Predict the structure.
Amino acid sequence: MIHIKIENILVHISLFSLSFGTISYWGNLLCRSKNLRSLGEGSVAIALACTTIFLIIRWLHLKHLPLSNSYESFMFLSWSLSLLNLFLNHREQNAWLSAIIAPSAMLTHSFATLGLPKEMQNSPVLVPASQSHWLMMHVSMMLLSYATILCGSLLAITLLLVIIYDPSANLSTPQNYFIRSLLSDNEKTSYMQIEDSLENFFYLISKNSRREILIKKLDHWSHRIIGLGFPLLTIGISSGAVWANEAWGSYWSWDPKETWAFITWLIYAIYSHTRVTRGWRGKQSAIVAVTGFFSVWICYLGVNLLGIGLHSYGWLI
């Protein structure tokens, strides 16, 4: 059918644009080029437009929001990540943000397009329980919360990697005459050695200063983005409980996805609470966010992989 061909064209244009945008953002991270940043923004904008049209076409064809199987949910997640990338790029022109978020949108889109079987990419017929106005509210809020929380958690992972990489580890190398002269009992040090040592010393001070600024920025944006995602997650879980009561006569049944959604919510509640009451920053809060990162993937994808529970749709095995 014609709409299927159009969908395929849009999906592949979107995937190519996200891939090109990712390369451009990575190039901008290395070279700090305005042209590369503009290319990245333009590519992601094209991908967002194509994915938006794809979702609208499928919406018009199905007569409901296309969020009823793994393929559609991954496409919506990729759309959310692309939108978040452009929004944050407009608010804060930070090379790190785009270099992390754009690849996330690209990988999500790639998994949906290339990783899922063709039969799972077809439009499914909704079961009676899913034929409700709560479908749009609950699923869209959950996927938007996943997109924001995953982005914030990826920034936390980057923060931990920056902390783990310690540039001062190179202080013990034989070329560093400044440290060698401090540790050596030999009082005779040449003028050239002292000059090299001072250059190394001031370079390390500058490098450590830039590193601390980067850590603070990553912590700040990780907190801001997770702070946006946590209320969305709360709304998504609450609306899901109301929908479950209408469909199954119970607000909460400890279904595997419900259980992991609650665990995820609890982890990010701890994240927010410890930052406010205990003043956790940097490494401590990043570890909590990374724990939530894995919890989100178990909740979102793990249940589908196992194919168990009322929330499992379109499992892979």
Remarks:
- The mean pLDDT is 80.
- The chain has nine helices and no strands.
- Residues 132-168+204-317 form one domain.
